[in-house]
Write a structure and sequence with these properties.
By secondary structure, the chain is an alpha/beta fold. The chain has 24 helices and 20 strands. The strands form four sheets. The protein has an eight-stranded mixed sheet, with helices on both faces. Strands 3, 4, 5, 9, 10 and 11 form a six-stranded parallel sheet that branches. Helix 2 crosses helix 24, helix 12 packs across helix 17 and helix 12 packs parallel to helix 23. The chain is elongated. The chain starts with a helix and ends in a 36-residue tail after the last helix.
């Protein structure tokens, strides 16, 4: 290589190193954003920092007597606190705890119907969630007041917490209506004569922050839902006295409040009362101050972020409901159809057709497989079915081809080619194959003696064009290996039984699959269009009218990735390749004949269960965390354990069908918490790659060659037929 070529190669490696973190950064940012939105939702639903303690009355000796005996409005902004009253024939009707999306509009409609105005003491949580209602209040001439952000009893809170409650409440009002307000009403309050030594310092501090505190003269106690008559009676002042009336437009069913307004408003107007805002009644300047500049945009940003959080959460809840249905439907289908498949192929006398006894060709594409290739080839030599083995060396640089040639085994040939990729290696092997049935396997896989025989028996049915074998994890001793073992037995092989019955098998595994040469030639052989050539060729077979079936006894033992990095690389390629294959064969949705049948059954199922469902499945765990933090904790845990129990039942049934030991299922709960999240991030990364038009290259996984299959492997031989390599 020239010096300039070396410099270019070094530069490319540096670029790849710089770009590598992006593979993890985008999915991680998405998860962080998702958790941030859920935290924000908990924040504005009073699930963070809420404090609903209510204290018992304390002594009143430190409260000025003129405050206790004065009016319901306390102005403590100056050095000398004042108690103010509403003039005669004036009614200030106030509503606490809103806005509520159901009841506040009805209350506003009643006030508008009778040309009455009032004061709405809104909480920050509700104002943040329903800013349009706050804006409507201002637009229709009503006055706003603060009722804190989270509705705690401020007597229990520090000054910093009180400041936070006020500022966050103002932020929500500013974002919703573009104003600030100088009115305040403390939660859990009623009459000013109820002020005691615990509440009075809070009122003084609120005044020092520039707020007027408004209590009330009459309390409708509508929150108790005592009936319309009782609400009206308690709200009505004596004679012509002016009054501040306390009602609620949120916090529960307010139908009685709305019904009471329909009588209370006209009745009091007939008695000569005017319903007005508090500042109008007191002859004071408006409580509202318009907000402009950065403070306004800060408020708008807040309400906008809350709106996004609420909408996203609503979508997530809907997605979670969909997931719940899909979980039951998918597992129900898997159990029923897998049982039907097992019962069919295991019944006495079952056969696909005439026994297949003719020799077959086994293709072994290999690229730098020196650790595994000898075990792979020797396992084939133990086969109880007549075979020829063609090892296609795809430009290996580690002596893979030489290892096979030095074994001097009968019926084993080596085909060498420059590095061209797995699809071209398989096509090259097909051209060199001598038989009409072709078995394909990976260079890191080993077969049992009966694997080939079991794999080719379905070709006794002339309608069968391809057969999927039973790929199993050989290195299952590590935790990652055990998780993949569960995934292979349950997620892959149980799925294949279901898809076999439905006639839409999506993938013949590259580790163990068989094809008719005629079927391969009719669809044009292995394609390089996608990174999942096994899924691509399987879909092409379906569209060409061939049956694709599953042979459960054709077991192959493959070496699964042993590190998170290796697993990530493999599953990223699988996920992205599957998306490519679905997109490539999308026209099957509108075609007729076999292609249309597969397109309208197979493609939706594959898209749903292999692409969309795994992307949404982690919502179960996200909402588990949300429920544990914000509640209801008990119901959340029960729901999650219910989903886990369904998965455990399916996994146990799959293990029973495959005659696997149940001990590996001990790690199932941990797999659901950790492994599923990794698969989710991988799939999310694949989506991002697909949507951004990115391209992904083949990535070679590191192998150890530790996997061996049950059965004898013949000793090395120095003579035999067909031992010479093929150029």
């Amino acid at each position: 290589m020239t010096s300039s070529g070396r410099r270019r190669a070094q530069k490319q490696r540096r670029v790849r190193r710089r770009r590598l973190p992006m593979r993890y950064l985008l999915p991680s940012l998405f998860l962080v954003a998702l958790m941030a939105m859920l935290m924000l939702r908990g924040y504005v639903h009073s699930e963070i920092l809420a404090d609903h303690r209510v204290r018992t009355p304390a002594p009143t000796d430190k409260v000025p007597q003129h405050i206790l005996e004065g009016g319901p409005v306390i102005d403590a902004r100056g050095a000398e606190p004042k108690a103010l009253s509403v003039p005669d024939q004036k009614l200030v009707i106030t509503f606490d705890d809103g806005p509520d999306p159901v009841w506040t509009p009805r209350v506003l409609d009643k006030l508008k119907e009778y040309d009455a105005h009032g004061v709405f003491f809104v909480t920050g949580t509700m104002a943040s969630r329903y800013p349009d209602l706050v804006k409507r209040m201002v637009d229709e001439g009503h006055e706003l007041g603060l009722h804190t952000f989270n509705h705690p009893d401020l007597s229990f809170q520090s000054k910093d917490r009180i400041d936070w409650e006020l500022s966050q409440n103002q932020l929500a009002i500013t974002g919703a209506a573009g104003v600030r307000t100088s009115l305040f009403r403390p939660p859990y309050s009623s009459f000013s004569d109820a002020l005691d030594n615990e509440a009075w310092p809070v009122t003084q501090y609120i005044g020092s922050r520039g707020y007027i505190t408004a209590f009330n003269n009459t309390d409708s106690e509508d929150w108790k839902r005592p009936g319309v008559e009782a609400i009206i009676k308690r709200a009505t002042p004596k004679g012509t006295e002016g009054s501040i009336v306390l009602m609620h437009d949120s916090g529960g069913d307010r139908s009685q409040t709305v019904a009471a307004l329909d009588r209370f408003l006209p009745d009091m107007q007939k008695r000569g009362y005017e319903f007005t805002t508090l500042t109008d009644a007191l002859g004071a300047p408006s409580a509202h101050t318009p907000v402009t500049g950065p403070e306004l945009w800060k408020g708008k940003a807040w309400t906008g972020a809350v709106a996004v959080s609420e909408n996203v959460t609503t979508v997530l809840v809907g997605g979670l409901a969909i997931i719940g249905v899909l979980v039951f439907v998918r597992f129900g289908l898997m159990l029923v159809l897998s049982f039907a498949h097992a019962r069919k192929v295991r019944r006495r006398g079952f056969h696909w057709g005439a026994p297949v006894t003719e020799p077959v060709t086994v293709l072994v594409p290999a690229y730098n497989e020196k650790e595994c290739i000898e075990n792979t080839v020797r396992s084939l030599m133990a086969s109880d079915h007549p075979i020829e083995v063609v090892v296609i060396d795809d430009g290996s640089s580690d002596g893979t081809a030489g290892i096979v040639e030095s074994m001097w085994l009968p019926n084993v040939r080596v085909v060498r080619q420059v590095n061209s990729g797995k699809p071209e290696a398989l096509n090259n092997g097909i051209r060199n194959a001598r038989h009409d049935i072709i078995v394909m396997m990976d260079g890191d896989t080993v077969f049992e003696p009966s694997t080939v025989r079991e794999l080719v028996q379905p070709f006794g049915d002339p309608r069968v064009g391809a057969v999927a074998g039973n790929a199993k994890v050989g290195n299952r001793d590590s935790l990652i290996g055990a998780w993949q073992h569960i995934e292979y037995v349950m997620g892959f092989n149980l799925d294949r039984r279901m898809y076999d019955v439905l006639g839409c098998m999506p993938t013949i595994p590259g580790a163990v699959g068989a094809f008719r040469r005629e079927a391969l030639e009719r669809v044009g052989g292995m394609s390089e269009d996608t990174l999942a050539e096994d899924t691509d060729i399987t879909m092409a077979m379906h569209r060409d009218g061939w049956r694709v079936v599953y042979a459960e006894r054709a077991r192959a033992w493959t070496e699964a990735p042993e590190s998170v990095q290796q697993l990530w690389s493999q599953r990223y390629r699988w996920s992205y390749g599957t998306m490519q294959a679905i997109w490539k064969h999308r026209r099957a949705l509108v075609e007729r004949g076999p292609s249309g049948r597969f397109g309208r059954v197979g493609l939706p199922l594959v898209s749903l269960f292999m692409v969309l469902f795994p992307l949404l499945a982690p919502l179960i765990d996200v909402f588990l965390l949300y429920g544990l933090v914000f509640g209801p904790t008990g119901q959340t845990v029960v729901a999650w354990l219910g989903v886990l129990a369904i998965q455990a039942v399916c996994a146990a049934y799959a293990f029973r069908l495959d005659k696997e030991r149940m001990t590996h299922l001990i790690s199932l709960p941990l797999q659901q918490l950790l492994y599923r999240q990794l698969m989710y991030v991988v799939l999310l990364q694949s989506w991002i790659t697909a949507l951004t038009g990115g391209r992904l290259r083949w990535q070679k996984l590191r192998r150890t060659g530790v996997v061996e299959a049950p059965g004898s492997i013949p000793s090395q031989r120095r003579s035999g037929e067909d031992r010479r390599p093929v150029a």
